[in-house]
Amino acid sequence: MSNRRKPDDLRSHRWFGQSDMRGFGHHSRVAQMGYSRADYEGKPVIAIINTWSDINQCHAHFRQRAEEVKRGVLQAGGFPLEMPAIALAEVFQKPTTMLYRNLLAMETEELLRSYPVDGAVLMGGCDKTTPALLMGAISMNLPAIFMPAGPMLRGDWRGQFLGSGSDVWKYWAEKRAGNLTDEQWHAIEDGIARSPGTCMTMGTASTMTSGADALGFTLPGASSIPAADSRHGRLAAETGRRIVDMVWEDLKPRDFVTAAAVDNAVTAILALGGSTNAVVHMVAVARRAGVPLSIDRFDALARRTPLVANIRPAGKYLMEDFFYAGGLRALLSEISDLLDLSARALNGRTLGENIAGAEVFNRDVILPRDKALVAQDSLAVLRGNLAPDGAVIKPAAAEQHLWQHKGPAVVFADYNDMAKRIDDPALNVTKDSVLVLKHAGPQGAPGMPEWGQLPIPKKLLAQGVRDMVRISDARMSGTAYGCCILHVAPESFIGGPLALVQDGDLVELDVPARKLVLHIGDDELARRRAAWKKPPPRYERGFGALYQQHVKQADQGCDFDFLEGTAPTPEPEIH
Ligand code: FES
Hints:
The protein is of the alpha/beta class. It is 35% helix and 12% strand. α6 runs parallel beside α13 and α9 runs parallel beside α13. FE2/S2 (inorganic) cluster binds next to loops.
């Protein structure tokens, strides 16, 4: 192709193309690593941003995958350099990985900026790693390709399939209700996560890797391949080969992360019954590319998108079954009339070309449109005097009789207060109560942890209650379910109306009308607002202080104010 770049056009040429004193430093130090000039001269330098770590269980196979990516890069005539980045291990990192999503985004962007890099393979998958890597790579805007970790195999207990998260919530409720022995509980522990890879329910990991796939940021269908499948290793090598070509073609994220591609990704997420976390992450990802995605766009697309993936928590199956049923390409072909098929992916083809010929092999896993789990509204954005800037609910994960509900609030000041009192037999709570959790948002928690699925009080569990209306400014795990109103904005810690709710206040939820209303008079609300006192900052120094000063609210994607947007950043001077 005539517009292919030449070796002298490479960004890394600024480091390696000079024979001055600085060039000497660069050449001699590459030599120190055991490479001769023939290994890298005139070749695209490919950074493999690897979020492997001993503490990240979902990326346990990434050392081997990085070698497979390198094999592909070398085959295609590139020069691979692996660069580790913070692993963001869901489950282990406290208070929440969300506190560090923007840190990984910054690290990714600055790794790519400050080193002699021409293109990048982004290795992630465990929840926040995907949006973080995409955000950083979009902001740096060098050719980049996302290499998803892939879901783990189905969990197993007594011959039953177990799903990450979803079955934890389910069996934890049974254990709290006294229906499960310690021995059985430990056997579930041992069988639920039995291979490398990300959570294999439609949690945040598979939601975001599928979203990246539909966005055109992976090789087509990459997100559905289980981590332990040999096809995943071959995907890694193919990814390595493709990134080298992308460098010569100068195909960059902002060339394909367009408004149409973002709509395709959101539509795919909705058809999958994806995690509510996607709302926060996709807003942040899209805005890095200059696409002004709003939470209301999610609501608008949800009104026309059927939920056709029969995957837990909304459905029955797991990601392994989804792969065997044809995977994401098959699902997208099922809803192709809702997609912009002209959107280009990073393999240079259109979405329409990439899903051509895809077939559904199991109609019970990828459902026909007329048998969709939910015809529309798999996700909804609520507004009202309790959430002026919006809140999010996943109606498909809630008991339907709660979609329109009015009940008295039972208020918890923060997570510790909730943990202390939720099972107190004296707690004034009934199945009609509305549980309210404060100080669980971006600044209040901090980091907006997945605390939004408040537990059902034990005494109600014993009565057979399994779902109630719950409200917070927290997020909820994508593997969780229940009538949980999340991401209330503005959050309570900064004085959002949620801060003003008191025990006994009547709260009304109306999902069809998209309403969330606190039924107290304006005068009373004003009186409470005047009496409200801003809590002291949680951090005096360190990353927490930076986070608190700059994080935006949930409806804005929780990005840092100084990281969003597309303003140009200068290339480093080389002196
Ligand atoms: Fe890593 Fe769920 S814990 S994806």
